[in-house]
Amino acid sequence: MKIRESLNSRFDFYIFIPYLILVTFSLLAIFSSTTNQTGPVAYNFYKQAVFAILSVFILYSVYKQSEGFFESISFPLYVFSIILLIAVLLVGKTINNSKSWLSFGIINFQPSELAKIATILYLSKYLSDKTISLDNLKDLAKSIFIGILPVVLILLENDTGTSFVFIVFIFFIFFMKGLNPLLIIVLSSPFLIIFASMFGIIPVIIFLIIILVTLILLKPYIIIATYIFLFNVIASFFFQYIFNILSAHQKKRVEVFLNPEADPKGAGYNIIQVKVAIGSGGLFGKGFMNGNQTQLRFVPEQWTDFIYSVIGEEWGFIGSVLVIFSFALILTRISKLFLTAHSEFSRLVSVGIFGYMFFHFFVNIGMCIGLFPVIGIPLPFVSYGGSALLFNSIALGIILSFYKHKVSI
Amino acid sequence: MKSSDKFYIPLDVKTAILKYIVIIISIIYTIQLFYLQIINNEYFDVKSKQNSIKGIPIQPIRGVFLDRNLEVLVDNKNTYTVKIIPAYFDTSKAKYIEAALNLENGTIVKYLRTSQSYSPYIPIRIKKDAPFKNIAWIEENKEFFPGLTYSVELQRSYPVVSGSHMFGYLKEISKKQLEEKKDIYTMGDLIGYCGIEKTYEDYIRGEKGYQYIIVDSRQRQIGRYNDGKNDKKPQKGYDLVLGIDKDVQKVAEEKFKGLRGALVAIEPQTGELIAFVSSPEYDLSKFSAFTDKAYWDSLISDPNVPLFNRATMSINPPGSTYKILAAIAALEEGVIDENTIISCPGSFVYGNRSFKCHGAHGNVNVIHAIEHSCNVFFYKLIFKIGLDKWAEYARKFGFGQKTNIDITEEVKGLVPDTKYYNKRYGKNGWTQGFLVSLGIGQGELSVTPMQLALYTAIIANNGVSYQPHIVKGYLKPGTKEIVPFTFPKIQTNISQRTFDIVKQGMYLVVNGHGTATSIKMPDIPIAGKTGTAQNPHGKDHAYFIGYAPADNPKLAIACFVENAGFGATWAAPIVKEVVHAYFNKHKNVNYKDTSLVKSRKN
């Protein structure tokens, strides 16, 4: 194992440059969609620009830290973030239906952003212990508890999108740690079955057959697995009921995803306008500040979850693909660490970060181009939001820090 | 993690799985972007333009109506219309606006409700013909009442004559019409509802212009699209030229003041209407603006039924004016000639009934029978002709069918024949005695004044005329050149000799010792026939049909005065005044040399 001193090999530009590209696109898109607006929104660009500069510095200082540092702060950070999540339930500010914001004067901060990193770090720390095995039911239960605690708190904040993100990266970490993949399927099946049931009875039946086959293969866990299977059957039969307890706007989003033209002026409006914005961009786009969908505000709150449509409209196919390419590059670079990571801890942290960034990327762009229902989660590095950019940059800083110590193979 | 576990996945495989998920998703998304942005770009581009580019219609100027000498009969004037754009309007403020504009409480809400199914960005009219003080008030209070707006609209004005039943009026387009013609009209557009406004809608409407503007997602105007280069100017509608003579029409309308009835004057050679009156008239200018509810109610409840077009829709027996038709039928069928003498002892007995004449005329031929309007002559004559022959001649002159004048409000009337009586009373349920009244234009015969006018015109022009029409053509834009409409010719194939005989009788009615000598004019000989139709519901209806000059008719007129009395007393003098008005104007004009005549012949 040889550690070279040149910055070139220690600092991974294949992650840093796509990161800068994304941040640049973000600032351009925020500028384009907000400067002509009136009210506090008009200052979004300047706020975000300040955060962007700050983020680059923070990314660099996180990169400078050693792996031991992250390990040592993981538990206190986790506890701190849980406290903040509880605090937010008590004194939080409600924005867009979710009581997930803590307000410090002009800056609003989502503790769930911090909790994301803290949970990844602490869960990884816990699982990196060689004596811990997910085949051991007690250990499995413990690690599920570490992961599920923030999820429950975030669900209580009414922020379904973010709790989805947690579940996804927890599964990614479990997968990497070696949880039986069949059990992963079974564990995740309640979520998947609900998703499948949105598309009708046939996908549900196919899915139930897959689970049944999985269960037969999964003899060691037959008791847990049977319970889960029974839960699935109940879930699929009582889907209508479950669907009804979803809040009205979530329900609408699902219905609208399945058929957006059914309600073009109402809930389907966003999906249609976002698609129109992106589709009308063409190869080269309409040009910076020239997208009529954007400039004339046909997409509501475009600088947040639908920011990809600004890029699609004003920068066209070239810009849109460049964003996808940047994400693909960052994610594949992170995946490199799965093999070359210096330790089990850094491997699990990497896969956690990979998991949540991938899920954000997959869902956000998927919903903008009409391949996924509208789930209100932002596009990392691109959507407006100072604290989100800050914590995403910290996450990338952690990855870059791991790159310092990576093992050459 | 036991390596013996059959579900153990090696690290490099796990890594590869995650890496390839990223790559595959990226490729799928790139393909979808290619599909949206490259393949379907045009579709979405159009959609996005439709989003933000709105065409604001500019109403065209409606064509005006000119009389035969190109003098204005129906003009346009600018008026203010107060409108509300429902999308921006706060209904709770409606009562303040209603108070300021003198509208009834709840009017605005009522209008908003009726237009609910349309886009809330289409303005709806709440007050038309608003006085300037209303507009000033709106301007002052604009910011308190978002969605309240006004526009300048063209409305009809009628500077010289009333002409209510022939001009007709406009109404806001109905939902049904809108569905049929949605490419031309939009909600709130006015459309010809009756009269020639309706018939010639396509000519006088013009074409809407469009101003293209860029709007944002809340439909607020941001600017003009492409600097207005794509805007379309509205096209003015064609100006119609009517056969009506303004001065003749005016006199006819004046003579009918206080009377109920109708008068139609036709130029026999062309079928053009020179005057068209149905009395009482109503005030069209009150229709062209927002139909005032009080005025509307007064029209509806008026016992004289002013909205009823008597010229084309009132049907009554024509009385003695119909004797000409019987005479023509008899002469043409050869059952009599001009020398055939029928004796009039003062009454005619059929079965056990006696039918009276207004005097004992002794031995009369057809000419004198017409001159003196001898009933007995015609009682006897109809038996010689026969019912079905008589009905056949009636139809040749347009009775029992629509004249197809260029307004749609018209009825057919009734000419009874054997088939009709069989149907009505059964094969043996009627007798030849029914014919007696028909001979003098009474009984189950019913005609409109319009039909009588056409009949007179055909007689005047010796059996030939054209389908009667109010409008003769339209002006070629920017010129005085008339583009004529063409109308079918009417031909009766009745011999000139027959016309010569009956016309001699008609001449004597006025200029001999006939029933209308009181209207004799030394310079313009009128020929005609009086009629007094018995009316079971009230006083007799007065009729006079006539043409002038008798030897070379330029004008054929039918005049009907409801419940007035004798035709000679009530109807004939009106005809005299109308003829006088016409020839007074034309005495110095050498008709045949004017350009109007030339273009008409084209």
Question: What can be said about this structure in brief?
Answer:
By secondary structure, chain A is mainly alpha-helical.
Give the arrangement of secondary structure elements:
The complex is a heterodimer of chains A (409) and B (602).
Chain A: H1 7-10, H2 13-34, H3 44-63, H4 67-91, E1 93-95, E2 98-104, E3 107-109, H5 111-128, H6 137-156, H7 160-177, H8 181-197, H9 201-217, H10 222-237, H11 239-245, H12 248-258, H13 268-279, H14 292-295, H15 307-340, H16 344-368, H17 386-404
Antiparallel strand pairs in A: 1-2, 2-3
Chain B: H1 11-39, H2 41-52, E1 53-58, E2 65-66, E3 72-84, H3 94-100, H4 107-114, E4 124-130, H5 132-141, E5 148-157, H6 164-167, E6 170-172, H7 175-180, E7 190-192, H8 195-199, H9 201-204, E8 209-215, E9 221-224, E10 240-242, H10 246-255, E11 261-267, E12 272-279, H11 284-288, H12 293-301, H13 310-313, H14 323-333, E13 342-344, E14 347-350, E15 353-356, E16 362-364, H15 366-372, H16 375-385, H17 387-396, H18 418-425, H19 434-439, H20 449-460, E17 464-466, E18 471-475, E19 482-484, E20 489-491, H21 496-511, E21 527-533, E22 541-548, E23 555-561, H22 567-586, H23 595-601
Parallel strand pairs in B: 2-10
Antiparallel strand pairs in B: 1-8, 2-3, 3-4, 3-5, 6-7, 8-9, 10-18, 11-12, 11-23, 13-16, 14-15, 17-20, 18-19, 21-22, 22-23
Provide a descriptive summary of the structure in words.
The complex is a heterodimer of chains A (409) and B (602). Chain A has 409 residues and is mainly α. Chain A has one domain. Helices cover 71% and strands 3% of the residues of chain A. Chain A has helices at 7-10, 13-34, 44-63, 67-91, 111-128, 137-156, 160-177, 181-197, 201-217, 222-237, 239-245, 248-258, 268-279, 292-295, 307-340, 344-368, 386-404, and strands at residues 93-95, 98-104, 107-109. Chain A has a 3-stranded antiparallel beta sheet with strand order 1-2-3. In chain A, β2 and β3 form a beta hairpin. In chain A, α2 runs antiparallel to α15 (307-340), α4 (67-91) crosses α5 and α4 crosses α6 (137-156). The radius of gyration of chain A is 22 Å and the shape is globular. In chain A, 50% of the residues are buried. By secondary structure, chain B is an alpha+beta fold. Chain B folds into 3 domains: 1-37; 57-239, Penicillin-binding protein 2a (Domain 2) (Alpha-Beta Complex), CATH 3.90.1310.10; 246-601, Beta-lactamase. In chain B, a hairpin with a 4-residue loop joins β11 and β12. The radius of gyration of chain B is 34 Å and the shape is elongated. The termini of chain B are far apart. The chains are: A mainly alpha (409), B alpha+beta (602). At the A-B interface, α7, α13, α15 and α16 of A face α1 and α2 of B.
